[in-house]
Amino acid sequence: MSHEVTPQLWTGDYYNEGSGKDGLFDKLKDECGVFGVYGHSDSASLSYYGLHALQHRGEESAGICVSDRSEFHYHRGMGLVKEVFDKDMMASLVGDIAIGHVRYSTSGDSKLTNAQPLVFKYRDGDLAVATNGNIVNAPQIRRELEQSGSIFQTTSDTEVIAHLIARSSKDLVEAAKDAFNRIVGGYAFLIMTNDKLLVASDPHGLRPLCMGMLGDAYVFASESCAFETIGAKLIRDIEPGELLILDEQGLREDRFEEKKHRKSLCAMEYVYFARPDSDMNGSNQHAARKRMGSRMALESFVDADIVTGVPDSSISAAIGYAEQTGIPYELGLIKNKYSGRTFIQPSQELREQGVKMKLSAVRRVVEGQRVVMIDDSIVRGTTSRRIVNLLREAGATEVHVRITSPPFKNPCFYGIDTPDRRELIASQMSIEEMCKEIHADSLAFLSPEGLITAIAGNNAEDKKGGLCLACFDNDYPTRTDFGGEEKFGCSC
Q1: Residues catalogued as catalytic
Q2: Which of 82, 132, 245, 262 is deepest in the core (most CB within 10 A)?
């Protein structure tokens, strides 16, 4: 009598492990999200809902640390926010100061020890740190600290900041300023002690961070959509190089570096990452993406029967393209909301068809039609080719691809997990070659000028509209080479 071997239900230690690294799809990987509260008795619950709103920024781990002014209460776990926290756990997180974090990790770093907030004991009590971003010179600083006796418990950049603060003989605020002046990169930091909360943004404002208020309490988040969830009011963005100190004396606005750089908020926040209902730099993401689609239509019009967007991030731009051209917008592609890790390991044949698990073409909509397919970016090109083929298999007679960003040619060093430059199709091929590679009838990208105008308008403060466009133009706002140990991706 033979016995069948029951297949393992998932390939990692927990169901959602690796959900951000699906080899079938070459979309850019989400970063991380931070959320903070000062002065609210229900800070843990507010953090839970805030992190839930920021879930799209990181799906591999979540954590909340709360202070009751005398000691920390914290919990971290692998998986989604709703999987990490339950009712009993939330009831144990008591205090009116809190910081929380959702994390997307780079390959090899998906482990509980790297889940944030990181919590430490140091000379003045407890210290918790949460960040979104990447410290480019972290390997160099880490090596120096280890040579002088520091022992690291994680592979996270965030621990570097904790060591720099803990080793300083200065008070917390001055120690934090010195630490921020040593590091180079893009970051948004929340640092908590038993009775203080520090909030900081890198000197270029590369990573988003904003402040809101709920009654008399202050709240902070990577995106303003988290404020809507908890009923808080958006006050403003945290300025580049700014350091906010919140303690029993209230809110104090300070700086660790004077304004000497142009603001360089990551353009991909507008193109792809942020939720459509978030506001950044006074601009709503949905409205900005509609303007990108409209501008795309002006720059690269093509006669067609319908316009469709690749869900979810390109829907707004597709609506803008359709409104500008008068070509009807149709729901030609449907996203399966439950297309995370499958319970069984698919065969290679099924993996090749795997795009159909995530997207479906609506045959009755696209059959016999000339389709304009709007997408936000092309990374390796494999996803674009699969979606074009999907539309053709459903009967589309022509597929014209319009990308509402410039060609993505360079890796990011500031918190986006991007492939090596050699894997970026736009750095290896011309637009004509890419068009042939993805099996499209035509291909066009939004110009850098068009992107800046769509986001910042014609009255932008500088020629780049306060944006970092390094992934498009190779003009990085900071040094990226530190002894050959340059790092890209999100290693918070």
Answers
A1: 32
A2: 132
